[in-house]
Specification:
This protein is mainly beta and 116 residues long. Helices cover 0% and strands 52% of the residues. The chain has no helices and eleven strands.
């Protein structure tokens, strides 16, 4: 049984930082990444990384967010800096055996709120 377990969300002030973690069990994935869904919005890619370290970022986050992966732990991380109120969303860990746009398994989601 595949499980993706996220941690690290919370409330942070604008300009602050957070680090999200996701550990997968039950399968090895070619691509792991982070997606977010804000109020009234569709779920969208934030950042993804392949097993070999190739990364893909949404246009709104390069330079502020960094995705990384530890294949020995079957884990993916998202370091978020210079957070803005518009980054507020539920962040989901997603995993795919093929492509970042073809997610087969999702975590339960973790809330990130950026507010003063």
């Amino acid at each position: 049984q595949v499980q993706l377990v996220e941690s690290g969300g919370g409330l942070v002030q604008p300009g602050g930082s957070l680090r999200l973690s996701c550990v997968a069990s039950g399968s090895i994935f070619a691509v792991m990444g982070w997606y977010r869904q804000g109020p009234g919005n569709q779920r969208e890619l934030v950042a993804a990384i392949t097993h070999y370290g190739t990364t893909k970022y949404a246009d709104s986050v390069p330079g502020r967010f960094t995705v990384s992966r530890d294949n020995t732990k079957n884990a993916v991380y998202l370091q978020m800096t210079s957070l803005k109120p518009e980054d507020t969303a539920v962040y989901y860990c997603g995993a795919s055996h093929s492509h970042w746009a073809a997610v087969s398994d999702w975590g339960q989601g973790t809330q990130v709120t950026v507010s003063s």
